[in-house]
Amino acid sequence: MRRERDDSEDIARVRVFIDHWEFSLSWQIAYSGFTRRKLTASDLENAQVESQKIEWKLLPDIILEHLDEVEYIKDSPKELRNVDVYASARNSGNQKADNDFRNWLEKELDPLPGFEVYHFPRKKLKRSVQCKGCGASLDRPELEKGLKTKMACDLLSYAVEDLYDIGVLFADDPELSPSVLCVQEIFDKKIIHIGLKSRGQTLRSAAWGHVLLNDLMKDLFKPHDFGNKRTRK
Amino acid sequence: MRSRAGRPSRVRVFIDYWNFARDWYSIHERQPDKNMDWAALPAAILEALDRVPLLRSTRKELRAVKVYTSLQPPKDSGFDDLDEEEKLGEERRLNDWFQNDLDQLTAYTVDITPRADDPLQCDVCGHRNSHFVEQGVDTKIAIDLVALASSDLYDIAVLVTNDSDLVPSVQCVQDSLDKLVLHLGFEDIETEVRTAAWGHLFIEGMFADIVRTSERPYS
């Protein structure tokens, strides 16, 4: 939705960009902190499936509430325009769970109001690598193809078309720093990074402001997962 | 492409170095002394653009050639088999060539991305193997394509890469920012970038101008 920018009392248009895997991983780490459960390697592997526990439909309101606590922008009225989720389903070895997850992305997450899910296939590299210790063939992880460039391109192209004022970024990859700096310096947009304190430092430094994911956590559980969940107004 | 009232069309060239070099090596496998004459490339591109039917009548002016690279040669170059000291030596040599030769050619800028270690642990013996990957080169090209177009700093982009990750940015600058993107690559290597781009050039048509015979460095 484009609009004329000559009104000084404009509502700040908020657009959210979520790297699904990185957000899921951070959420899983934060979740284990809240539930005081020791995180295992398989918990991290299952982060994408576990992400279905997140209260996605509450996410837009939660983000807006927390933006109202960020210095310098807390007094501006805000309006959420879109939540873009960039996902690349991993093959966990459990085919049913993987299929269920893809269905969930397509049939539950994408139809939520304001949500748009972009799905990127993963690619296995053809060239094999041998272990320098024993010569065994190493299993190279599948790589997501095109997700980061699509995110970088969208951050930039929506800014070029003046489709947002505040970009909220759930991602940790420093690859996105140049696009963050570009939209801030050239297009006068504000990027707010949301993530764990222990991850995504480069992106958090590049961003205009940040909110720590831990501050959102208490609102992001489903009631059966977290007994003390606050009732939303 | 917007008319610029008689002024020449500004051309920018974007090159993903290792993506291009891999194809170059595979095409010239049987002639390892066949090297690329980087200094001759910009003029060869302008000449090739003059042969594109809808661009024939437009005057063209080269603005910049930007080469995006990392100090991470392709896997089949044997780089991974070197020990750490040899790797450092090779990296220094590459860095020296990128900065003191290629970058100093007229109109060229080289953007070097540091390589990132993404170690692989062996399931059999537990050994932690260094595994370096090129990270961020494609996003840098995507950003420059869009950001320079939005600041109206070129009219024609010549894109030298087969990385399909760049398709959204190609579509964006063509559809929203009214720029022309031409893919430059090898005729036999099919790529989604060529399909997405407004037009294309084949590098084989430039061989007479840009292939030189010399001892083969990474160039």
* Fold-level CATH name of chain B: Rossmann fold
Biggest interface reads: A-B, 30 and 32 residues
Provide the residue-averaged pLDDT of chain B.
86
Number of helices, counting only DSSP H or I runs of 4 residues or more of chain B: 7
Number of discrete domains of chain B: 1
Computed CA radius of gyration of chain A, to the nearest angstrom: 19 Å
Largest sheet of chain B: 6 strands, parallel
Please supply descriptive tags for the structure shown above.
heterodimer, A: Rossmann fold, six-stranded parallel sheet, two-stranded antiparallel ribbon, 9 helices, 36% helix, B: 219 residues, alpha/beta, Rossmann fold, two-stranded antiparallel sheet, 33% helix, 25% strand
Give an account of the 3D structure:
- The complex is a heterodimer of chains A (233) and B (219).
- With 233 residues, chain A is an alpha/beta fold.
- Chain A has a single domain, classed as 3-Layer(aba) Sandwich (Rossmann fold).
- In chain A, 36% of the residues lie in helices and 20% in strands.
- Chain A contains nine helices and ten strands.
- In chain A, helix 6 packs parallel to helix 7.
- Chain A is globular and about 60 Å long.
- The C terminus of chain A is likely disordered.
- Chain B is an alpha/beta fold and 219 residues long.
- In chain B, the strands form four sheets. In chain B, strands 4-3-1-9-10-11 form a six-stranded parallel sheet, sandwiched between helices. Chain B has a two-stranded antiparallel sheet with strand order 2-12.
- The longest helix of chain B has 19 residues.
- The model of chain B has no long low-confidence stretch (mean pLDDT 86).
- The interface between A and B is medium-sized, with 30 and 32 residues.
